[in-house]
Amino acid sequence: MRVRTDEKRQEIIRVACELFEQHGFDRTSMAMISERLGGSKATLYGYFKSKDDLFRAVVDHDIPEQSDRFMQAFLAGKDLRDGLIKLGIAYLTRLLSPMPITNMRMMANQPEDSTMAKVFYERALRPAWLRLTDRISTLMDQGLLQHADPWVATMHWKGLNEWDLLDKRLLGITKHTDPADIERAATLAADAFLKLYGVEQPAQRANPGTGKTKRKKASGKSKAG
After folding, report:
1. How much is the pTM?
2. How many CB atoms lie within 10 A of CB 189?
3. Under CATH, which architecture does the 1-49 domain have?
4. Cα separation of 218 and 9, whole Å?
5. Considering only CA atoms, which of 224, 114, 225, 101 is closest in space to residue 166?
6. Of 15-19, 20-24, 182-186, 219-223, the least confident
7. Would you call 47 exposed, middle or buried from its count of C-beta atoms within 10 A (0-12, 13-18, 19+)?
8. Whether 97 contacts 174, CB under 8 Å
9. In the chain, which segments carry CATH 1.10.357.10?
10. What is the pLDDT of residues 123-136, one digit of tens each?
11. CATH architecture of the domain with residue range 58-197
12. How far apart (Å, rounded) are the C-alpha atoms in residues 192 and 186?
């Protein structure tokens, strides 16, 4: 009897992720995955009963991992505006890459009575957005953003970044998004977000991760972080 290991399971998820991204979900078969792994389909099915189960595992692995990376980018900003720009660039770069586009297209093609899309949203997507919501809520409590509904603010930030870039990728109008367009979208989104929720603090500058501030000569610009 073969012994299942977490290491093998993670290897299967990694290979499946690569193939889903290269060929799309529909064109990737369990046989292709087992061939890439160098094992048998029996071994693969010993870990995952179906391609749908494997896809859910890929999503459960990918989104939390990316969420960690996005938050690191946000916290690395020298001030709130810079952090928001870095976060926007990281988010859009990943969102518009092949794997997330494949995921969204697949979810959109599910029948209305399918539970896959609901599970995807509840287990992976919503928790990732709630993590950013918690960060925004903290910044509001620190007086670095205006008090408002943190979830609404998060969704405003999301919409400001996505523009029509996501629509064009989903509809196949563009196959690749120019990094310059991503940077421009992220920068304009950060500025618009701060116009909506920013707090006038001309004599302060703060890191979005710590909330610590230092005095600086007033520049006439709103600094919040």
Report:
1. 0.74
2. 24
3. Orthogonal Bundle (1.10)
4. 55
5. 101
6. 219-223
7. middle
8. no
9. 58-197
10. 888 998 999 999 99
11. Orthogonal Bundle (1.10)
12. 10
